[in-house]
Design a protein that fits this description.
This protein is an alpha+beta fold. Helices cover 57% and strands 13% of the residues. It has a three-stranded antiparallel β-sheet. A hairpin with a 5-residue loop joins β2 and β3. The relative contact order is 0.09.
Length: 175
């Protein structure tokens, strides 16, 4: 959280509530968890060719005072644009899952792409399509593995049932 009255990235006044002003990290985190609403993401970066100095913030409004609450996050030190996109995507996805503020997948992807500069969006959108294709392939593979597993289980159960019937039949003949 910024320690000024105004965020350097926005003209909005920062939250003035006592827990935030105290500087105590635990109090700030608790205050943000309880009072942050209208959460959105802001991404600041130079270009996908120059990933130094990027900033990713979860930004919202305080329910109590109406001031800006901002929690900066810094994706891993990515060496390629693809690594950078993956790191930002993971952080946003994990954040939304933790808050149980799940967005529909198309809405999530739309917000994700909208954070990037206009000139970078075609690259970002292509990356999202490629990511979906890879994820889809894994999902399809898992589905096939599950189907094969069920088929094998069915065969084993059928064989066990057949064997039991054969043993019962053999016992009846012995009597």
């Amino acid at each position: 959280m910024c320690e000024k009255h105004y965020c350097t990235h926005s003209p909005e006044t920062l939250c003035s509530c006592a827990p935030v002003q105290s500087g105590d990290v635990a109090q700030i985190v608790f205050h943000m968890a309880e009072n942050m609403e209208d959460i959105r993401w802001e991404l600041d970066y130079k270009s996908l060719a120059d990933l130094s100095g990027h900033r990713l913030c979860a930004v919202g409004k305080c329910r109590q005072c109406g001031g800006r609450l901002c929690a900066g996050q810094y994706p891993v030190d990515a060496q390629t644009p693809e690594d950078f996109l993956a790191a930002v995507y993971r952080q946003l996805d994990q954040f939304h899952r933790r808050l149980d503020a799940a967005l529909s997948h198309p809405a999530f992807c739309g917000r994700f792409a909208a954070m990037f500069h206009e000139e970078d969006r075609p690259f970002v959108e292509d990356w999202l399509v490629q990511r979906e294709a890879k994820t889809g392939d894994k999902t399809e593979l898992c589905r096939w593995i599950a189907l094969i597993g069920l088929a094998l289980l069915g065969m084993l159960l059928s064989m066990a049932t057949l064997r039991k019937k054969q043993e019962e039949s053999a016992e009846e003949k012995q009597e």
